[in-house]
Design goal:
84 residues, two-stranded parallel sheet
């Protein structure tokens, strides 16, 4: 059984640069510590997962959005889907 068979799935998308920025802003420097290829690696990982993530019921692009705006976007999209 696949999670999509019993759950409504959401892909919270962001650009590779934003993924990296968010991790670093949280104080986690492991992805870039001593790794000159960190961004290339992240881009490759995200590209490899895109087809799988793309199967989600809802896609919400959070790139360039502050947390509050991303939340409002997601909430609006979910309300439309749920008919509320």
């Amino acid at each position: 059984m696949c999670i999509r068979d019993s759950c409504y799935t959401v892909w919270l998308q962001a650009s590779p640069g934003e993924h990296m920025q968010r991790v670093v802003e949280q104080g986690d420097l492991r992805p870039i510590a001593g790794n000159g290829e960190a961004m290339t690696d992240l881009e490759r990982i995200l590209a490899g997962r895109a087809a799988f993530y793309g199967k989600a019921d809802l896609h919400a692009d959070t790139s360039g959005k502050p947390l509050g705006d991303a939340y409002a976007l997601l909430r609006t999209d979910l309300k439309q889907v749920l008919g509320r």
